[in-house]
Amino acid sequence: MKIAVIGAGASGVFFAANLNCGARIFEANASALKKLLLTGGGRCNFTNAKISPGRLSEYYPRGANNLRKCIFDFGPKEVVEAFEDMGVVSKEEADGRIFPASDKASDVAGALMRRARERGSIFVFNSSARSVGRVENEFEISFSNAGAERFDAVVFAVGGAWTAPLRDSLIKLGHSFEPPVPSLFALKADMRQFPDFKSGTSVPKAKISAKFGAKKLCAEGALLFAHFGLSGPAALKFSSLAARELAACNYNCAAHINFAPQLAAAEVEGRIAAARTVHAKRLLKNFCPIELPSGLWLSILKKSSVPDDMAYSSLDKISERKIVQNLTEFAFDITGRAFEGGEFVTCGGLCRREVDFSTMQSRIQPGLFFLGECLDIDAITGGFNLHAAWSTAKVCANHINKKLLEKFLKK
Ligand SMILES: Cc1cc2nc3c(=O)[nH]c(=O)nc-3n(C[C@H](O)[C@H](O)[C@H](O)COP(=O)(O)OP(=O)(O)OC[C@H]3O[C@@H](n4cnc5c(N)ncnc54)[C@H](O)[C@@H]3O)c2cc1C
């Protein structure tokens, strides 16, 4: 059986590492796994111990339901074991993020390449698939640089950046695509909206929210203020949850930050009221009623037009309300994406309903398979994106190993 894999990224190489019969892997770049080597800042956060099939919608804004079975069969424990079997020992960090113990993405890449080659796969570099078409019972792939070749099965592992001709050739074969938009990016904001917020200030827990018509989207986590706007897990998660909505408004919208997401506004108000009695003589600048970096508390007072050298006993109700408002619903405008083109993943891709996720085979063109980010699947940060690449690849390799091969060999 002749199998072609298009794309030697995470999903394509993991597929080959799990395929018993070997495949030809066509890669547009001069080497494999270029993106994988950059993941996790070069450390490769390759899965997350907290992934559980029942909570997937928390991590996968797109594709949670489809991935359930894949992740049930091939969860974080199985991923860790699979890499251990290839010689990569792992370690778990805060939030369940899992990295190679060596902190080297190159160890993960090296192990994958070794295993794929041991299993008989052959890499063809500088070879970009231009289009795919059906010729009788086979698929013909045309390459940008040299001719065409026919295969019994074609596995697409091209990541989020589908080239237009390749996508169009699949549309001709009956497939459809959700339009691509960026996901996982820092948010641009005019920092004059944050008086005196120092670039580099971070808050351990904050919630960003925005309304898009009747829909309110929010994301919680650590937040980092930078010279261009907002970054850190909360901003990245927000960009993922609101990827489509932000694209629709051209990355310009009103948003809010809650600096005390664990407390109700009434509770914040209660804490200030209590401070007025308990800390009557203390100056506002010397006591923040919630846990905040002191510089940020001074900025909140400034934004609320309340003098920071005022004693709590002199704080009037109107000023108190302004402070509560700015602590729990700090208004600001998002004005764009920071570092356009530097996004981590793509939202959109081949329509999920056109693929059977128990095999990763096309429901429209049996013999075509789709893995990883080329599908309309993406996740927040934390190792979930790579996990989707591994689990879809494993399901597909298992299917081809156990069922398709048997069937084709009997012919
Ligand atoms: C800087 C950065 C850091 C990241 N860090 C993490 C992290 O720590 N943890 C995590 O879970 N996720 C992380 N991600 C996301 C993760 O890397 C991707 O989700 C994952 O690589 C997707 O795997 P894939 O196989 O679907 O696609 P890719 O890894 O993108 O591979 C696709 C491959 O296909 C090739 N290709 C495309 N078109 C063609 C064609 N027509 N012909 C031939 N070859 C083609 C490409 O050149 C590429 O090599 C990060 C992403 C970036 C950009």
Any overview of this molecule?
The mean pLDDT is 95. Helix 1 (10-18) packs across helix 11 (384-410) and helix 2 packs across helix 11. This protein folds into two domains: 3-182 and 346-410, FAD/NAD(P)-binding domain (3-Layer(bba) Sandwich); 185-343, no CATH class. It is elongated and about 90 Å long. The protein has eleven helices and 22 strands. The protein has helices at 10-18, 64-73, 76-85, 105-118, 164-172, 233-241, 243-248, 265-278, 294-303, 317-328, 384-410, and strands spanning 3-6, 24-26, 47-48, 90-92, 97-100, 122-124, 129-135, 138-143, 148-151, 153-156, 177-183, 187-188, 202-212, 215-226, 229-231, 253-258, 330-334, 336-337, 345-350, 355-356, 361-362, 368-370. Helices cover 32% and strands 25% of the residues. By secondary structure, it is α+β, with helices and mostly antiparallel strands. A hairpin with a 2-residue loop joins strand 7 (129-135) and strand 8 (138-143). Flavin-adenine dinucleotide (FAD) is lined by residues 6-12, 26-29, 34-36, 38-40, 44-45, 128-129, 157-159, 163, 166, 344-345, 372-374, 383-386, 389. Flavin-adenine dinucleotide (FAD) binds at residues 6-12, 26-29, 34-36, 38-40, 44-45, 128-129, 157-159, 163, 166, 344-345, 372-374, 383-386, 389.
What's the helix and strand layout?
Elements: E1 3-6, H1 10-18, E2 24-26, E3 47-48, H2 64-73, H3 76-85, E4 90-92, E5 97-100, H4 105-118, E6 122-124, E7 129-135, E8 138-143, E9 148-151, E10 153-156, H5 164-172, E11 177-183, E12 187-188, E13 202-212, E14 215-226, E15 229-231, H6 233-241, H7 243-248, E16 253-258, H8 265-278, H9 294-303, H10 317-328, E17 330-334, E18 336-337, E19 345-350, E20 355-356, E21 361-362, E22 368-370, H11 384-410
Parallel strand pairs: 1-2, 1-10, 2-6, 10-22
Antiparallel strand pairs: 3-5, 4-5, 7-8, 8-9, 11-19, 12-15, 12-18, 13-14, 13-16, 14-15, 16-17, 20-21
Helix pairs in contact: 1-4, 1-11, 2-11, 8-10
Bound molecules: flavin-adenine dinucleotide.
